[in-house]
């Protein structure tokens, strides 16, 4: 099954949105395979966002990510990369539909609460970066009630 990397950014942690966000992924039928609360170094945030290093907002983005603890997670499920992105909503909260996480909780693109991998390939890279220790191997007993 597919896995994706999801991170609740420092604003999401500060604003008490951890439980709600985890609950959305749980209730959907995805499985939590790894999780940690961690404050990352600048060099680590730069590595995570390396593809955006030429963008004018890169400096501010890195400042924001290192500004407090984040919740890093791996979620597993059928189509979890694409569906996770839909649950998160568009990058700019002004374009994120109500019902999505950013649509419900964010106003500014630079305070958009949550990160999710944008492809299966970037998910693999991000999971390797954030969880070199590996994932938990469990499978939910609910599996046949969620998947055909
Ligand atoms: P996403 O987080 O939806 O995958 P992205 O990978 O294009 O979006 O950009 C990563 C983060 O960078 C995004 O969540 C917020 C910030 N960002 C993106 N575009 C921006 C912009 N035009 N101005 C300011 N910050 C931006
Ligand atoms: Mg992205």
TrEMBL record:
ATP binds at residues 9, 57, 85, 91, 102, 112. The active site is at residue 115. GO terms for molecular function: ATP binding; nucleoside diphosphate kinase activity. Residues 1-137 form the Nucleoside diphosphate kinase-like domain. It holds the Pfam family NDK. GO terms for biological process: CTP biosynthetic process; GTP biosynthetic process; UTP biosynthetic process. Signal peptide: none annotated. The keyword Disulfide bond does not apply. InterPro entries: NDK-like_dom (IPR034907), NDK-like_dom_sf (IPR036850), Nucleoside_diP_kinase (IPR001564), Nucleoside_diP_kinase_AS (IPR023005). Its EC number is 2.7.4.6. SUPFAM superfamilies: Nucleoside diphosphate kinase, NDK. It catalyses: a ribonucleoside 5'-diphosphate + ATP = a ribonucleoside 5'-triphosphate + ADP; a 2'-deoxyribonucleoside 5'-diphosphate + ATP = a 2'-deoxyribonucleoside 5'-triphosphate + ADP. Its cofactor is Mg(2+). Transmembrane segments: none annotated. Keywords: ATP-binding, Kinase, Nucleotide-binding, Transferase. It is an enzyme of class 2 (transferase). Belongs to the NDK family. NCBIfam families: PRK00668.1. This is Nucleoside diphosphate kinase. It comes from Carex littledalei. The lineage of its organism: Eukaryota, Viridiplantae, Streptophyta, Embryophyta, Tracheophyta.
